[in-house]
Amino acid sequence: MKNRHNFEFSPKTMLVFLTIICILLLSVSAVLKDAVKPLSAVAETVVIPMQDGINSFGVWVGDHAGSFKSMKELKKENAKLNEKVRELTQENETLSTNEKELNNLQKLLKIDKAYSQYKKVGASVISKGSGNWYNTFVINKGSKDGIKVNMNVIADGGLVGIVTETGRTYAKVCSIINDSSSVSAKSSQAGDTCVVQGNSESVQKDGTIDVTYISKDADMKEGEELITSHISSKYLEGIKIGTVSKISTDSSNLTKSAKVTPFVDFQHIEDVLVITQLKEVPADSDSAD
Questions:
Q1: Are residues 41 and 175 in the same domain?
Q2: Which CATH number covers residue 237?
Q3: Which residues form a coiled coil (predicted)?
Q4: What does pTM read for this prediction?
């Protein structure tokens, strides 16, 4: 079989070729005026429209050549803009993170001033137990930072819990919503004593934990704040716990029970303050936690 060659002409080559034909025809008509008179009509009918077409084609090529160049420039510009958007997005995320950290620090500074009578160490939460609530969690400060078991932990709002275990670079905290937690407390106005008991089921249901052992003659009112009591064996006095609600008399008619909504958001704890002062009580003391 014979090889077939496909010849392709670019628009510029075609334009040059047609232009040469037109020049040749015009030259012949100039030299052989009489001989080509019969062809004049043909030229007027065929060649001139062809020349107009060639001119239009040339203009089209010129215009689109500029468009092709503009398209490449637009693609380059678009790539630059996309890179700029990516950089700005990263900067915005960094600023948002910095703003969040600043807000957390401002909250800690506020609570630090509220309990200025105690020395404290700032720490960040590095892990927690399962679920959405901070029943127990681990902080990034330990014995090398002066952290000891039974030190009180506070955060934005008030009491978080107590240190239950320490390592050199970490410490474990049990929060007041944990089922094992028991805090000796009192009402901030009437001074009626009570015990705040952790209740993980209740806090997940309505955000409250239990208040027990309220005297039947207590003047405690709903809406009052509860704070840690002076008779606690582990918790320092005067740390805010939460707001009392749903006070009711027990079936024995000897005591009352209630609910307390903690001031601390136990679903979102990132940074805390550990009070480095321990509660001093006699070794044989029978006071509640």
A1: no
A2: 2.40.10.340
A3: 71-108
A4: 0.66
Q: What residue type is assigned to position 118 of the chain?
A: Y
Residue 176 makes CB contacts below 8 A (sequence gap 6+) with 159, 160, 161, 183, 196, 198, 209, 241, 262
With beta carbons less than 8 A apart as the criterion, state whether 154 and 259 touch: no
Residue 206 and residue 188 share a domain? yes
Residue type, 247: I
With respect to residue 286, please indicate whether it lies within any of the assigned structural domains: no
Residue 82 domain boundaries:
11-114
Find the mean pLDDT for residues 152-159: 94
For residue range 40-98, what is the model confidence (pLDDT) as tens digits? 555 556 556 666 666 666 666 566 666 665 777 888 888 888 887 887 777 766 665 55
**Do 270 and 124 form a contact (C-beta atoms < 8 A)?**
yes
- Residues 187, 97 share a domain: no
Q: Which stretches of 32-186 are DSSP H helices?
A: 37-42, 48-114
- What's at 98, amino acid-wise? N
The answer to whether position 176 is within a domain reads: yes
Number of compact structural domains in the chain: 2
